[in-house]
Amino acid sequence: MKVAIIASPYPLEEAPAPPLGISYVAAAFEAAGAEVRVFDFIVNRYTTEKLAAAMDAFRPDVLGAGSVTLNFYDAAGIVRDAKRHEPSVITIMGGPHVSFDAYDTLQAYPEIDLIIIGEGEKTIEELVFHDMDRKYWPSIAGLAYRENGNIQYTAPRPLIEDLDTLPAPARHLLPLSRYQALGFPISIITSRGCPHMCIFCQGRRMVGPKMRQRSARVVVDEIEHIISYGIDRINVADDLFVSQKGKVLEVCKEIKRRGIKLAWSAFARANTVDREILSAMKEVGCDSVSFGLETGNEEMLKRIRKNITLDQVRNAVNLCNEVGIIPHASFMVGLPGETLETMWETERFAQSLGCLYGYHILAPFPGTTVRDQVEQYDLEILTSDWSLYDANRAVTRTSKLSAEEINKFVDDFEQIFKAMWEEQVEGYRKGTNTPEIDFQVEGQLRTKLVYRILSEDLIETYGSFPLDSVKYGPTETIVPLCERIEQATGITDGLVPKTVRNFIEKKYIKTRMENGQLLWYWTHNNRVDY
Predict the structure, then answer these.
(1) How far is CA 502 from the centre of its chain?
(2) Per-residue pLDDT averaged across 409-422, rounded?
(3) Which among 286, 170, 162, 288 is positioned nearest to 226, based on CA atoms?
């Protein structure tokens, strides 16, 4: 059985790292005996022609896609295109959005044959065991599908108790060189499950209230595997990693025992960190911790069931500073009962912490308590246009706060940083910045450039040279390649040559001879034996 898995487009603003969920799904299909390919349209431009060519070359029996609410329309649209190109292919979707919106998804997209609800690995194992034969679907837990025009649900799928039994994420199927060029860290998880009841979060319903841990040995094995690709930065994506003190200390001890050197970051709850745990993390490379704080108003913290206090937040930030870890605070505006006064109370509190902080806007995703029980809260949902659910624009209002007021608050906050950024860029152009600021500016400019090169296929488009015009080899084509990219992007400040030469030095791009052409192309990955 051949299975193609779609990594759906994701905007640069959301820091598109190698997709962890897709990697787990691909690993599950491989472990079940399928031949698997990932069609990545996160760091490749998507076109229907490109999808058709990939399908014709691989000829999959099954095509699946995952999505979050933010990119659901893109993912479902690609599945629709695939089904139209090859009607016989069995199409599947999974992930948090469709798990909680399966009925509407199947109603709106007849091209989607099957939805996997919740954790998918064991469901995938059974589907492959039965060769995806439709007659077995009613007996396989965790599915939604159409039968005689009606939407059918099978029994709920029990959660996986022993996470160490799962195959390691199939990152070898991803175009890792492209992600390495983009520069975002690779994410891992050390556990699944969340006992907390925050009303705005899908996680608890998706992965269950019971914490399920991966062993420290398995986690650090995965870290070593990641390092073998030449990657030296990871992000521990568990919401509750730092909440499990014994587990964290075990992982840190194992990293130290193996002599692993890498930089990493993690998420944490403000009421679970202490000096011992942060010091242990710092010793083995952790340099930043992000705290989801949501609001600076104690009453609203209770209303959203966050179960933390402002004093705990202050203590957590202070402890990070004391041990040398950079704290970052994330706040959310537009929560139930929000007013102009509570937003400004949050802003004053955020400033008082003296650390990096930023805002998201409440997006009541399918499956969240705040959406399912919205009538119990001072909140009105204004739209179910999922393309607007990026947490950057208001899709709700409260009795005392309009969507426009929510947007203006965040826009005014971001305008301060936009003005500062523009001043720094101007200093970069004129050579008046400090070296430290220039380094930061160039890094951000480079990230934006690389994303354009990747998402617009600029290497593929402009990296072809007739062999009869190439006298001395690939190096002769570097300058014209850079000139072509400069012309396409309008970036002519020397950043393109720096970036392209870095790609070459890191072996992210190489050349080959094909049909009388010298072609620059992206390598798949640069894995070496660890």
Answers:
(1) 25
(2) 93
(3) 170
Quick one: which of 111, 140, 110 has its CA closest to 127?
140
Taking the C-alpha atoms of residue 126 and residue 139, their distance in angstroms, rounded to an integer, is: 10
Long-range contact pairs involving 152-156 (C-beta distance under 8 Å, separation at least 24)? 153/102, 153/117, 156/117, 156/118
Between vectors from CA 500 to CA 497 and to CA 506, what angle results, nearest 5°? 135
CB 197 within 8 A of CB 55: no
Q: How far is CA 371 from the centre of its chain?
A: 23
Interatomic CA distance for residues 143 and 119, integer angstroms: 11
For the record, the structure tokens of 50 come out as: 């490109």
H or E segment and range at residue 278: helix 275-283
For 315, the token pair is: 């203590």
Q: How far apart are CA 318 and CA 354, in angstroms?
A: 9
Return the pLDDT at 529: 37
Helix (H, G, I), strand (E, B) or coil at 524: coil
Domain 185-401 falls under CATH 3.20.20.70: yes
pLDDT per position as a tens digit, 110-135: 999 999 999 999 999 999 999 999 99
Range(s) of the chain covered by CATH 3.40.50.280? 2-153
Q: In what order do the strands lie in the sheet with 464-466?
A: 464-466, 517-522, 509-514
Q: Which is it for strands 2-7 and 62-66: parallel, antiparallel or unpaired?
A: parallel
Q: Please tell me the distance from the alpha carbon of residue 301 to that of residue 343, in angstroms, as a whole number.
A: 13
Query: pLDDT grade, residue 530 (50/70/90)?
Result: very low
Predicted confidence (pLDDT) at residue 388 exceeds the cutoff of 50: yes
- What Cα–Cα distance (Å) separates residue 458 from each residue in 35, 179, 291? 30, 15, 37
Q: Quickly name the fold that domain 2-153 has.
A: Rossmann fold (3.40.50)
For residue 369, give Cα distances in angstroms to 240, 305, 330. Answer: 19, 11, 20
Is the pLDDT at 473 greater than 80? The verdict is: no
pTM to 2 decimal places: 0.94
Sign of torsion over alpha carbons 396, 397, 403, 405: negative
Structural contact between residues 413 and 430, judged by C-beta atoms closer than 8 angstroms: no
pLDDT of residue 13: 79
Residues paired with residue 213 on neighbouring β-strands, in sequence order = 191
Range(s) within the chain of domains with CATH label 3.20.20.70: 185-401
- In the chain, what is the greatest distance between 2 CA atoms, to the nearest angstrom? 73
- Closest by CA to 8, choosing from 43, 49, 54, 41, is 41
